[in-house]
Amino acid sequence: xxxxxxxxxxxxxxxxxxxxxxxxxxxxxxxxxxxxxxxxxxxxxxxxxxxxxxxxxxxxxxxxxxxxxxxxxxxxxxxxxxxxxxxxxxxxxxxxxxxxxxxxxxxxxxxxxxxxxxxxxxxxxxxxxxxxxxxxxxxxxxxxxxxxxxxxxxxxxxxxxxxxxxxxxxxxxxxxxxxxxxxxxxxxxxxxxxxxxxxxxxxxxxxxxxxxxxxxxxxxxx
Length: 222
Prior knowledge:
Blueprint: H1 2-23, H2 34-50, H3 55-74, H4 78-99, H5 106-124, H6 134-152, H7 157-182, H8 189-194, H9 204-221
């Protein structure tokens, strides 16, 4: 039962991330931080290959492709894209090795290592993740991790400990989401507003665009 529920809620989390990414793509804000997005994709790709195209891994791989594709798109600098791509290739090879490691259940242990990294990174990037649907995605993620832990907690000590830490960080993230949505200024939104100041660049096109946006905002206020 718990395994089925974690599949449902993680699928909803991925789907929500994809939908919000597409709907608000013009804002170019992240919905899943770069590192977790990369780790999820590379793990799921190896799981898909290992399962010979199991339907569950197929669906999640498609969603992960859309998520990492969006993250690549958000990165505007070529150097950062190349670095992200190189890290992605490295992780594909790394998980390929871990999945075949006979001494341990590398597939399960690596998935919980990713869960823990994801939970920590979401907390660390709570101010950078888009406010669009962040609480809904956080709730789906929390429930998905909770039911996954209830299903696998007795399989290894690492899974037991990692699962507890994941839920702790997920709870902190939900609190940060609530604080940010209720009081944007307290969550650092004012710093982001300062970025909208007049650009120092002498590029005429950039200055004209800034002036145009400024006039549009004034019209809206009227």
